[in-house]
Amino acid sequence: MTTPNADVGDVNTTALPTATLVIFGATGDLAARLLMPALITLRRGGYLDNRFKILGIGHEEGDGKMLRDKLGSFDPGKGGEGDGEKGQAWDELAQGLDYLAGDFADDRLYATLSERLAGSVVFYLAVPPRFFGTIVEKLADNGLTTEEDDAYRRVVVEKPFGHDLASAKALNAKILSRVPETQIYRIDHFLGKETVQNIVAARFANTIVEKLWNNDCIQSVEITAAETVDVGTRGAFYDATGALRDMVPNHLFQILATITMEAPANFDAESVRDEKAKVLGAIRTYDRHEAIENSVRGQYEAGRVAGREIAAYRDTADVAADSSTETYVALKLLVDTWRWAGVPFYLRTGKALGVRDTEVVVTFRDVPFASFPSTRNADLPPNQMIFQIQPDEGIDMGILIKRPGLEIATEQATLSYRYDKAELADLTGYESLFHDVLRGDQSLFQRADAIEAGWRAVQPFLDAWAEDDATGPEPYAPGTAGPRGAERLLERDGRRWHAIVDRVEDKA
Ligand SMILES: NC(=O)C1=CN([C@@H]2O[C@H](COP(=O)(O)OP(=O)(O)OC[C@H]3O[C@@H](n4cnc5c(N)ncnc54)[C@H](OP(=O)(O)O)[C@@H]3O)[C@@H](O)[C@H]2O)C=CC1
Ligand SMILES: O=C1O[C@H](COP(=O)(O)O)[C@@H](O)[C@H](O)[C@H]1O
Fold this sequence. Notes:
Low-confidence stretches: 1-12, 78-82, 503-508
Strand order of the largest sheet: 16-15-14-13-7-12-11-8-17
Structural class: alpha/beta
GO molecular function: glucose-6-phosphate dehydrogenase activity; NADP binding
Number of domains: 2
Domain Glucose-6-phosphate dehydrogenase C-terminal: 201-498
Shape: globular
Mean pLDDT: 91
Distance between the termini: 42 Å
Number of strands: 17
Bound molecules: NADPH dihydro-nicotinamide-adenine-dinucleotide phosphate, the ligand O=C1O[C@H](COP(=O)(O)O)[C@@H](O)[C@H](O)[C@H]1O
CATH superfamily of the largest domain: Dihydrodipicolinate Reductase, domain 2
CATH class of the largest domain: Alpha Beta
Largest sheet: 9 strands, mixed
Number of helices: 17
Helix content: 25-40%
CATH topology of the largest domain: Dihydrodipicolinate Reductase, domain 2
EC number: 1.1.1.49
Catalytic activity: D-glucose 6-phosphate + NADP(+) = 6-phospho-D-glucono-1,5-lactone + NADPH + H(+)
């Protein structure tokens, strides 16, 4: 769970045990935009030496040079945003980079792999999800996942893992019928984020935090993942997916689990994943009526966001003109455990919003009594602890202080920790995950039971929305905080979302 630092000088780097990384889908977007930059960072940091080999697989005819040229022309800035520097680390990695053309469904591909591969291998499935099960089956049937004493075989599976509870269960069953859980690494790149891992440190390395971390002291928790990006060129994928499936049972639930899990007895992978699975399994599953009551769907219209004009979601390429797919979702969830009983968890995520901001806001209970003569309880807003996951990475603690002066009056102040931007600059989250796969640490990878628990909690929303033809998603203007209905979800409980942009009603 240590994040390799882009700056070699800062860390105690140890080359990882060597292996071959086989990337299925090496000519695709994920490989170029997120996987290669992470590998370059690891190489630069001294974690990968020149015995580390990469074998890319894709449809396209070609050889190692074709793949090297393709990836070499890509700017490895964070998430493909540019300004990255490949430099010597890329040249060194590229020397060990080869390519094999083939079809994932073709047995000849696996026969060739059997001849070519020896020693420890990580198979990375950067492929359309419909191939996850097939590739694992074929790898296993060709003996490619069989481990030896001195050679491991690990399979990394990308997201989305399933489309609903039934398909996630079926995929788990298919994969686990061939390869044991100990060799399967289901990726959720949010778990690779330094700031998500820091929630664990904040909770379990600080007595003052953990003692207050329960329903005695906390009144509500908000988890927000707001994006300014629109659906862009991903219409085909997104229209079949929507905001709920794309972000909630995976990324937002992993944050929720990190916030709510009990302290593991120790930090080995099984203990950590046991605790996460338990708490995800404790999210209340709603009936149809409750699911409608506790959810809000939105879909963006045409407008302006982050300085550019965007088309309405329904006018996006590969999106149905009458699509009812949500580009925004807000939920109120409950976690039925002693620690969290009665504490609402409000989750929201959406595209084309006014700001990019992923954050967790923990709101503590009001003071029981206003002691100062000149203040009323209403003048004493509750303390909030805010984990800024991205882009302004840090932790803020909102407290009340005495306003300097002769009167006793309070005002809000913030105790703030900000990450050194330089330390996070080049990290995509995949560095940490690659590092852990190569070390065989599964703590930050999703286990089958946790995946299914996540789908179990969101399935009632999918079912209720599918049945509820009358009310589709509520339109919202790009550049706002989302649909008005999301505000009402909290107003009903006498609360307001932590403001990420001007209030919706000011902008919409
Ligand atoms: N891109 C991203 O930002 C993210 C992607 N993911 C996940 O990563 C996975 C890959 O996504 P992405 O890279 O965007 O997808 P792409 O469609 O860009 O890439 C898919 C790759 O698979 C290859 N491929 C497809 N079908 C076959 C086949 N039958 N035989 C051989 N090769 C084949 C493609 O080759 P060719 O192009 O020649 O057909 C291409 O190399 C998906 O599961 C996605 O959900 C997860 C998070 C973020
Ligand atoms: O997996 C996904 O995550 C991204 C958001 O990830 P981030 O690291 O950029 O915050 C999201 O845009 C995409 O739709 C989803 O598939």
